[in-house]
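Work Package 4 report. The design task specified in the project plan requires that, given a folded chain encoded as C-alpha cells, an amino acid be chosen for each position. We show below one input record used in the internal validation round.
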C-alpha cells in the first residue's frame, strides 16, 4: 500500500475487510431473492440450441455496420430517459427472438456488483461480478419504446437481487 501511495502521491483508500460484502452476498441466498428469480422466470421454457456442426462450410458470418451514429443513439436514450444498456439489451432480445422464432427470451447479463449498498464497495480489491438472467416476453411489449421501458423496469426490480448466484437460481428452478 505504501508503494502504491508513493506512485499516486497520496494514501489510497483500501477496504480493510470484505466481511460486509460477503455478508451481503450471503443475504442473496435468501428465500426473498430466490423467490424474486423464481417469479421472474416462472413459465419460461428454454429453447435447446443445437450444437454447431463440425462442418465449417455450413457456417456463415454476417457483418452489418450500424449506419446510425453512436452519438445519435446516446442522444435518443437521454431524450427518452433510457440507458444504452436498456437499448442494447432490447436489441439483443429482438435478435434472439428472431433467430430462434421465440417471443419469450432469456439471456445472461453480467453485473459488476459494485452498485450494492456496501460501504466502500468501490475500493474492494475483490471480484464482485455475477451473471443474472434477463427474461423478456416480447408479446408484452408491442413497441420498441415499451420494450425499453420493460428492460428499464427489469433492471430496477432486479438490482437488489443482482448477486444471487446463478447456480443457486438454476438449482432452485430445477
Amino acid at each position: 500500500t505504501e508503494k502504491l501511495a508513493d506512485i499516486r502521491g497520496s494514501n489510497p483508500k483500501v477496504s480493510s475487510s470484505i466481511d460486509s460484502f460477503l455478508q451481503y452476498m450471503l443475504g442473496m441466498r435468501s428465500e426473498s431473492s430466490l423467490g424474486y428469480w423464481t417469479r421472474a422466470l416462472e413459465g419460461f421454457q428454454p429453447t435447446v440450441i443445437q450444437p454447431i456442426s463440425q462442418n465449417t462450410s455450413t457456417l456463415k458470418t454476417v457483418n452489418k455496420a450500424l449506419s446510425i451514429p453512436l452519438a445519435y443513439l446516446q442522444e435518443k436514450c437521454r431524450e427518452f430517459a433510457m440507458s444504452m444498456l436498456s437499448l442494447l439489451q432490447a436489441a439483443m432480445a429482438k435478435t434472439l427472438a428472431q433467430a430462434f422464432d421465440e417471443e419469450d427470451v432469456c439471456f445472461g447479463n453480467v453485473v459488476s456488483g459494485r452498485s450494492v449498498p456496501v460501504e466502500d464497495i468501490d475500493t474492494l480489491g475483490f471480484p464482485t461480478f455475477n451473471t443474472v438472467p434477463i427474461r423478456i416476453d416480447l408479446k408484452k411489449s408491442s413497441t420498441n419504446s415499451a420494450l425499453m421501458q420493460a428492460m428499464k423496469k427489469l433492471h430496477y426490480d432486479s438490482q437488489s437481487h443482482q448477486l444471487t448466484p446463478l447456480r443457486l437460481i438454476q438449482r432452485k428452478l430445477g
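Helices lie at 2-8, 19-27, 31-41, 70-79, 84-100, 144-158, 166-173. Validation will be extended to a larger panel in the next phase.
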